[in-house]
Amino acid sequence: MGLKKKWDEQDVEGKWKNGAYAKNQAKLARRKQLGDFERFKVMVLRKQARFEVRKAQASAKASAKA
Fold first, then answer.
1. Alpha-carbon gap, residue 27 to 23, rounded angstroms
2. What does pTM read for this prediction?
3. CA-CA distance, 5 to 11, in Å (whole number)?
């Protein structure tokens, strides 16, 4: 009984869920559940994000030269 009380007082569950390892495990578990089309949508979104980042980097680089 004392352990559960201390566990709740210290908010161990909340700290665990906010940790990097637990977040990575949750991300991997979510990815395992994706279907083919969902994986395709993720790929397209990642490509779009990468394009926007590279476009911003190119414009910053061009403005730095000017």
1. 6
2. 0.59
3. 10
Query: At a CB cut-off of 8 Å and minimum separation 6, what does 23 contact?
Result: 17
**53 near 60, Cβ under 8 Å?**
no
Would you call 34 helix, strand, or coil by DSSP?
A: coil
Domain interval for residue 24:
1-33
Tell me the pLDDT tens digit for each residue of 23-42: 999 999 999 999 999 999 99
Q: How far apart (Å, rounded) are the C-alpha atoms in residues 24 and 30?
A: 10
Tell me, yes or no, whether 26 and 43 share the same domain.
no
Contacts of 13 (CB under 8 A, 6+ apart): 7
